[in-house]
Design brief:
By secondary structure, the chain is of the alpha/beta class. Helix content is 56%, strand content 9%. α2 runs antiparallel to α3 (45-60), α9 (225-238) packs parallel to α10 (255-264) and α17 crosses α19.
């Protein structure tokens, strides 16, 4: 995410490296590089110019402390200004009305239907009872896709395959939701071009008849500046309440994320970071600014983990670890929960400093597959009793999983080592003794 922009901003900051103070000359040179980096990322020209002027003015007005380098100071100013540029603070979805009606709009291929499913899943996790309404009557298999997504997350879908009237279907869906006590109704609509007058009139009618509490405009973040221009045209007709940026896990230049708020003056409310139904995050401008500057996003990483790990399950797991009863069933479940958090490279990018280190490293999201195959080739008894897996069993597991015997032996060794460490760290006193006995770092006092 934003790898290109990160690289160019890093190069811009190097202008100030080794400088003892911030001056008109070195700031002007740095701002020139930053403006070029933003324009290369397909940020709106006026937005890029206004942004760099603001950063320059604030940087020149600050004194450099002896403990802070000019580069660090400029990074802080950049972080603050990027946060403001993208909205300043988080804007939450309006869901107080019962039922809350949410209309989804956007271009063809932006990911509206997938987002509709993700949003339903997100709201369900917050205790809501959503209903999905299949309002796309033009795209072949659009209804089928929404029904498949609804089935995956156990959310009902209202569809009328006999009708070609999006307005009528939307109204029928709302009536169905009210009958079944659904407190959130999400209306998926067909993709349309802003220049297609008949389709723009149609979605305006859907809005007028359904009176939605939220209108979310879905944007493919890989389209950059083009997405911003489209958003402006849609906003002139629909006056939408928020923007959704999809495909942020792809080769995103950053133009849409950085320009859209300043051009359209509507907040970004959600970002999509993958195909999985769990790959949806609330948009926090401050966290995104930190990630663009390569400073990580630990808060989002912790939140994703909290969403996937149940407190009761965690307590039970801790008891098993203390009694040295952690087995391959528990290990397999942990792998599944980690996979639900998102793609591995995206997760690594949330850890400060790690994102840059892993930039050119290809992390395979299928890395767990061989481990899963080995565990799945074990009998229920073997999974519950790892110590029982002797040589003959290892040979059978290797053949059953299509693995080499060395790979099975390696996994069993790593699992046993992990169990020992987990058991020691589950005892606070033992953990403290371990930490005390560790050698000091070379830079320690």
């Amino acid at each position: 995410m934003f790898d290109n922009l990160q690289d160019k901003l890093d190069r811009a900051f190097k202008v100030l490296k080794g400088q003892g103070s911030i001056t008109e000359i070195n700031v002007a040179e740095t701002m020139k590089e930053i403006r070029k980096a933003l324009l290369d990322a397909d940020v709106n020209y006026k937005t890029a110019k206004t942004f760099t002027d603001e950063v320059r003015q604030k940087a020149l007005g600050m004194n450099v402390l002896t403990a802070v380098s000019p580069g660090q100071l400029l990074t802080k100013v950049m972080n603050d200004e990027l946060t403001e540029l993208m909205g300043g603070s988080v804007t939450e979805l309006e869901t107080k009305a019962n039922p809350t009606i949410i209309l989804i709009a956007g271009l063809n291929g932006a990911g509206k239907t997938t987002f509709s499913g993700k949003l339903a899943n997100f709201l369900k996790s917050k205790g809501k009872k959503p209903l999905l309404v299949a309002g796309d009557v033009y795209r072949p298999a659009a209804i089928d896709q929404l029904e498949v997504l609804g089935g995956q997350i156990s959310v009902p879908v209202y569809a009328n395959r006999e009708s070609n009237d999006p307005v009528g279907i939307a109204l029928e869906g709302i009536a169905e939701g009210k009958r079944n006590n659904n407190n959130v109704i999400i209306i998926d609509t067909a993709g349309r071009l802003a220049i297609d007058e008949s389709l723009m009139t149609e979605i305006s009618e859907v809005k007028a008849k359904t009176q939605p509490h939220e209108i979310l405009f879905v944007v493919d973040s890989m389209t950059g500046q083009d997405a911003v221009n489209t958003a402006k045209a849609f906003n002139d007709r629909l006056d939408f309440t928020g923007v959704v940026l999809t495909k942020l896990d792809g080769d995103t230049r950053g133009g849409a994320a950085l320009s859209i708020k300043s051009v359209v003056n509507k907040p970004i409310k959600f970002i999509g970071t993958g195909e999985k139904m769990e790959a949806l995050d609330v948009f926090y401008p401050d966290r995104m600014a930190s990630r663009i500057l390569g400073m990580g996003d630990v808060v989002s990483l912790v939140e994703r983990a909290q969403q996937q790990f149940d407190e009761k399950e965690a307590a039970e797991l801790q008891k098993k670890i203390r009694k040295n009863k952690f087995d391959f069933n528990d290990f397999y479940n942990q792998i599944q929960q980690i996979k639900k958090m998102g793609n591995m490279k995206d997760l690594m990018g949330m850890i400060p400093g790690v994102g840059k280190m892993m930039k050119n490293v290809d992390i395979d999201d299928n890395a767990f597959k061989s481990i899963e195959a080995i565990i799945q080739s074990m009998t229920p008894f073997e999974r519950e009793n790892p110590d029982s897996i002797q040589q003959s069993r290892r040979n059978r597991i290797a053949k059953g999983s299509g693995s080499k015997l060395e790979e099975v032996n390696k996994l069993l060794k790593q699992f046993e080592d992990m169990r020992k460490v987990m058991k020691q760290f589950s005892n606070p006193a033992a953990a403290a003794r371990m930490m005390k006995g560790m050698p000091k770092m070379p830079f320690g006092k």
